[in-house]
Design a protein that fits this description.
One of its GO terms (molecular function) is monooxygenase activity. Keywords: Flavoprotein, FMN, Monooxygenase, Oxidoreductase. Pfam families: Bac_luciferase. By secondary structure, this protein is of the alpha/beta class. The chain has one domain: Luciferase-like domain (TIM Barrel). The chain contains 15 helices and eleven strands. The chain has an eight-stranded parallel β-barrel with strand order 1-2-3-4-7-8-9-11, surrounded by eight helices. Helix 4 packs across helix 6 and helix 7 crosses helix 8. Bound molecules: flavin mononucleotide (FMN). Flavin mononucleotide binds next to strand 3 and strand 8.
Length: 441
Amino acid sequence: MTRRIHLGAFAFHPGGAHVTGWRHETARPDRHLTIGHYKHFAQTAERGVFDTIFLADGLYFWDRHPSGVDHYGQLRLEPLTLLSALAVHTSHIGLAATISTTYNEPYHVARSLASLDHLSRGRAAWNLVTSRYDEEARNFGGDHHLDHSRRYERGEEFVRTVEELWDSWDDDAFPADRQSGIFADRSRLHTADHRGEFFRVRGPLNIARPPQGYPVQFQAGGSPAGQQLAARTADAVFAGYRPLAEAQAFYAGLKQQVEDAGRDPEAFHILPTLQPVVGSTRSEAEDLAEQLLASTPDALIVEDVSHSIGQDLTGRSADEPFEFEPDTDTSNESRSPNRRADALRTGDHPATPRQVYARSFREGIVVGTAAEVADTIEERVETRAADGFIVQSLTLPYSLDRFVELVTPELQRRGLTPESYAPGTLRDRLGLERPARVVPA
Ligand SMILES: Cc1cc2nc3c(=O)[nH]c(=O)nc-3n(C[C@H](O)[C@H](O)[C@H](O)COP(=O)(O)O)c2cc1C
């Protein structure tokens, strides 16, 4: 039987997921801070009957190396502000914002997401991240990022506190009866009075329970601690793209952790990234991939590789071989696989920055015609490597326009994605139950 798959449309940067996607001939960097740019993105995804749009975020400007400022640093609108505007320009699609549990307070997040859920009539979602970089810490009064395991401990208490706040009020707690003058039914109120290790939050929340009960929660950390948090608390995981066998092992392992946590693995979606480069012909798609790769200036290639492997290669030529320092430790940033560093560590890697960069670019993309891209999607879903994908457009708006024009009809023809939206909330669309309100006895 064909499995119904779930799709999200990802906006990593306004110009697309590729670091210099903004340079493509069709890109319009002058429009990156306009509602028109994102309206086009969201409405295109909605035309393709995607389940959700999905906005990345970071709480810093990418300036560790000079080329970050010169070539890479793209400007971001704050996601919840942007999604509130997009709620008005769309009708069905989910609205997912990346939110850091390290640099926010639960009350702010519970309130913002509840607001978005009400305004969008049940379409809000968040992508829980613990953040990665010291640059982020320095915008919030610290020098260094909180220790990786502490970030996840804080993250778990954060989620629980947010849920307690959403449960402040029963679903029908506001009779607003003019006759009696009773606005709220006090017997349907619970004040959380949360006192934990990281947070003290009295509550109650000053907004009614969200239409979805709890807005949908994605989790993007892929380390063992990230997977544990996801298995206990999330509705879906946004995972990195891996080779097929590795993706199947990740999928099976995470579903098992969900089951071990006493939850239903079928109601938990694993959605890896997919970076399609699609063309009317394979050679058109390959040309586009080469064009995007070639658009990255040499200085950015060297500094992007430096950033990801934690070894400063700046000032070198992109074509100069370098000795990898195997003890380099980036583990407080992320403990998800660092594919570039791991390949260098095993010696299974070319040795110039340009080769490292090109290889990881090619490993992360799926290049071909609509049928070929649909084949990859279908194979990964049928062989239990994924329940769907978060589609990353290398250059925006072009890559998503092409996906919806070419790949969407192919997926619909194969019965993998629907041709129109059924009524209901994002939670309904993802086949997830609405969480019952939890009130301690
Ligand atoms: C596919 C994917 C997308 C991510 N997107 C973001 C993002 O937009 N913003 C962010 O701060 N972190 C993002 N992260 C990383 C998270 O910050 C994560 O919490 C961090 O890397 C540390 O967790 P880990 O060691 O479990 O990966 C992403 C991770 C993955 C796998």
